[in-house]
Amino acid sequence: MLIASQMEPTYARRVYPCFDEPAMKATFNIRIIHDPSYVALSNMPAIDVSEVKDENGSLWTVTTFNTSLKMSTYLTAFVICDFDYVTRTERGNEIRIWARKEAVKNGYVDYALNITGPIFSFLEDKLNVSYPLPKTDLVALPDFGAGGMENWGLMIFQEASLMNFPSDEFTRRKAMIALIVSHELGHQACEWFGNLVTMNWWNDLWLNEGLTSYFEYLGATFVEPKLSLDKIFYAHVLQPVLREDSEIARSLSESEDNIKASFSLMFLFDNITYSKGASITWMLSGFLTEKLFIRALTSYLKELSFSNANQDDLWTHIQMVVDAQDEVQLPAPVKQIMDSWTCQNGYPVLTLNLTTGKIRQEQFFNKNNRKSTDSYNNTWIIPISWMRNGSSQPLTWLDKSSKIFPEMQVSESEYDWILLNVNLSGYYRVNYDQINLKRLARLLESDPKAIPAVSRFQLIDDVFALTDFGYVPIETALELTKYLAREDELFVWNVVLLNLIPDNLESTLKNHEVYPLLKKYLLKRMLPIYHYYAGFISRDVDALEDDYFAQLYLEKLLATACWLGLQDCLDLSSELYAKWRGNPEYKIPFLIRRTVCCYGVALGSDKEWNFAWEMYNHTDSVEEDDDILLYAMSCAKESWLLYRYLQYGLSDTLFSSNRTSVIISHVMTKDIGHRIAWEFVTENWPVLSQGYGHELLHVALKVMGRFVKTDVQIQELQVFYNATLEEDEREAVTMLLESAKLENIERRKLLSKVASWLENNVDD
């Protein structure tokens, strides 16, 4: 048995009567009566443990905790468990990490214990404040809805966020733990992000989470110096949120009324709040310089601790620091600059004309489905970091819709080039003119390292995003991929592959004339980096333990090489899979296990498939391996194996119920599997609908939608949906299928353009 609480945002009122608003702070006296074989934890240290008898004469333990500091209701917490802990004291703060007894005994939480103290001290020193509580407990729960929760003095995590197996030397797992722990400690240590200084109301949640997300990356790269702060921040925070933010109609700081009118605050706990908040903090720290930014935060924390604040209070403190010095000059008051980023939704794209040196800004939106009535006249105050011909230039600002920068006019020489938003320091995209793009493409082919890795990543990501939204033709984006044989960073390759071969389009591409061209064009460019990493896989995979991006992205590179039919990759997969079959004790390197198992099954016969099935049914397999095997078994190339797999999935005894729909959707996404899975769903619907009902229909609809190109195909799907769905849902499905059809037709047009470009460039 285990009891734990989660009060944020509005659940404290379900535990005790209170004015459950972040601005109403109080001190709390907590006492818990519980079974004597359990321990009770709360925000503060226990000051008394006594016994009491109930009316049946049973003994109970009464644990009384010290009075808390003044704090918001959503940060109160308690846990009643029979866990063990490991402990260490850092600067007088007793840190304990609690987890299931066997996890503690096996050393699974040692890594988290080793980094918690140092991150705490790092944040205290950085912000020049001291942690006000005498103890900090971190508790790992087997099941928890969030990654972590920053209750003051009693932080709660899901096990995966705190546990590292001592045998696992790889940075990937450690990096994740370091990020999550450092995020929650960022709330603790002091930051007005949350505990010491709380937002006035939930509409400023981004201050709380955005700032903490920024410090999370500083803290994690401090304890794991092998991680590159810049690259990790772009790959995990900035790039994904730029993709999402152009589709979402909400700004970072919503008005209080807008939010009070909504029934739930949960929608605020999204990527806009966390990642856009962190990205804008990153940009702010960049143009102020970190020194001034931290100085402002420190004065802010000192003045407002134990009270509430909104974003304007922070801007005021930054303004005071800026006014007191003369190195950093801003084009406008801090509030005006920052409001342009927090109070408007979306973000800008800058369009550059290098002949005239003119830059103009507009909101980045999808031009393909723009209605002529939409008007986007937002302007932002934009810091522009830039370089010319490889040397950094002084920061400049665009504070109106367009402006001429004489210093950005380039000469006739093709060696004269410009790069904006260097190192992705600003939250926007850049659209270069053809002259500059040609020069950058040429530069990449002759000397890719002249452009920093993060800027290569950004250049490619921007140009593909501009293509998606109808700003530039696809050919422009493809020109920038010619140099890839000289690209040796997986971090950059990954963004290329995500754009050229998105996971959900593999079967579509495989059935299109573009495939053989893509194969020839890409393999030629992938070979150098493929062989570099394949060497490690066959000789010494442990040598990659500090290569964070290899752990994240090597799988996608290998899977793409195999998918493109690179013989060496297929042989490697068969060989490693056969080695495992020969000796089940052998471990296929985890970084590539999914791909190796998939192609091991695909290239084999029923013997290989049956081995995967046997291993799946081993009782002692780990969940991650189970997921890999469930996926691998859907890679079979023989229809009867896939059909048998679906049949197995249906029989209750073999699978826990949620696995069946996973199997169906795995098979459905495969090029030979999608018809088989669809027929299977329609034939077995009476049985399936009892267990999975709508959820499965939606999965099937989404996947099948990728294959519809004609009205006849839509009708075929509709016959089934009309028989199984309620009337009001049929209409929605029809619309979904219609839009899927249009999307597929558009995509085929696009793929034909890609194919003809490849045809002309495949031999370069």
From TrEMBL:
Which GO terms fall under biological process for this protein? peptide catabolic process; proteolysis
Where does the Aminopeptidase N-like N-terminal domain lie? 2-75
Topologically, how does it sit relative to the membrane? Single-pass type II membrane protein
Q: Which residues form the Peptidase M1 membrane alanine aminopeptidase domain?
A: 111-341
Q: Could you tell me what this protein is called? A: Aminopeptidase
Q: How is the cofactor bound?
A: Binds 1 zinc ion per subunit.
Please classify the protein's predominant subcellular localization into one broad category: membrane
Q: Which catalytic residues are annotated?
A: 184 (proton acceptor)
One GO molecular function term of this record is: zinc ion binding
Q: Which SUPFAM superfamilies match?
A: Leukotriene A4 hydrolase N-terminal domain (SSF63737), Metalloproteases ('zincins'), catalytic domain (SSF55486)
Instruction: Please report the organism this UniProt entry assigns to the protein.
Output: Illadopsis cleaveri (blackcap illadopsis)
What EC class is this?
Answer: hydrolase
- UniProt: Zn(2+) binding residues: 183, 187, 209
